[in-house]
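Quarterly update from the structural biology core.
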Amino acid sequence: MITGDLKSKIDQIWNIFHSGGVPTTMTIVEQLTYLIFIKDLDETEIRNERKALRGFKYTPIFAPFKGEKDEVNQQNFRWKNLKEMDVSARHDIFTNTVSGIFPFIRNLGKEKSLFSVHMKGATFGISKASVLDQVIEKLENIDMSNQDTKGDIYEYLLSKLEGGGTAGQFRTPRHIIKLMVELMQPTLEDTICDPSVGTAGFLVAAKEYIDKHNEVTKLDKYADHINKKMFNGTEFDATMLRISSMNLYLHGIEEPNIIDVDAVSKDNKVADAYTLILANPPFKGTIDKESIAPGLKNVTDTTKTELLFLALMLRQLKTGGRAAVIVPDGVLFGSGKAYKSIREEIIGNNKLEAVISMPSGVFKPYAGVSTAIIIFTKTGTGGTDNVLFYDMLADGKSLDDKRNLLVDEDLFTTFSFGNALENMDLEAKQKLHDKFNLPQILDHYCYYKSDYFKKMHGKNGELLQVSDVPENLGFSHFMDETLMHDYSNRTSQSFLVPFKEIKENEWDLSINRYKEIVYEEVKYDEPKVILNRISDLDKDRKTLFTKLNFY
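Predicted structure, tokenized:
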């Protein structure tokens, strides 16, 4: 969520559109997105030009100008040149439907790519040159070099569309997206999908993770896979299709495979295709029963989208494929037949690995719904043994509508994940943990999934007495507290629950079903003592009242 100066700047741009006669919220969102995209294209080109000085090879986005005989000078489409132009000349470039900037961006993708298909509907909708001039001036003063900033701007703009989402769609906070990506650790061999792609936040974060964890030579080797097959999604909203396509294109994915289809409908026939799914599917949405893909109804006979999407993910994953998905709490403990059947399918017939309960404030101010992240692997033959439960109490921001940052901003962005906090002393870590649980969540999950866990812990998660050197036990890979934690202690934030117990509880995954609450004993005074105290207070009251009357 954006606040302060950045929010003020975006609101100013919004007001320029409104007062300039741009009629609808959707139109404003679309037009502002196009301008951000055009600005980003030039910033990408500038970065590539700088890297080219060190031998980096790239295909220019904007063709070099060859002189007066050149019919179209694409250099005029670069932001650095657009911002310096005469107001009228610039507006002409935007309104030119034959050789202007919009025909240019509609044809950026490969001729038959889905990017090109989705961008066909991109049209310029700012009729007044003065409005375009003011908006460009304001955008020039916003630093969008940080992807989180762009993501937050998109999130804020989209929040204006029916209060943050339609049919239960709420934009996922960037740090939660990053946590989920870090938990799943995507690789170059993965084929990744978000079946409710929205602005493509999950796919962008996965691409950033892959870029960060692989050498350039290896990325080049997998370039064709990255550009054409790795990143997939479904979306039926035309605006979201364009926004997600532009977002992925700006992150170096030339032909993102974003399909225009209602994900859980009969029209979506994709199955056994992906190795990793990252998603925050719509909550509380419904679909016409006749439109639902038959295979999904066999798993969970319902029209509720939050259940149908889980059935869809199981269908779309390859055997051995894994998923990290945000679900509303009702999915975890709903007593209806459809709820129980989807939980049984995930737990009994596949492998559920973790349930991370999140506080209700995570999606504020757009929604106060309580949610959880569930992590599972498609096996088709079962395999759930113990499930790791984690009770997230603090995500680094206040849990009210303001969502103010509670920890140092640099620490929040730089040290958000993994064992980057290992050099902090225990007291400092604990102080941070009280406000920011995400580093511990990642550390506990990765440790639980590692080979070190069984060396230090028994089958119920209890801590064992072990004689071995620290390196063999994982002390150089994980926080000390992670290795020394008792995962059988259900009064803690992190604990294990066996498959058998979950089955006996009708597949209930609510953390409150299994967490033990420790009540502190409170001793009260005897009634006689309390009555004497009340009598003394009454005497004091009468004395004070008498003094007041005297004056």
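The mean pLDDT is 87.
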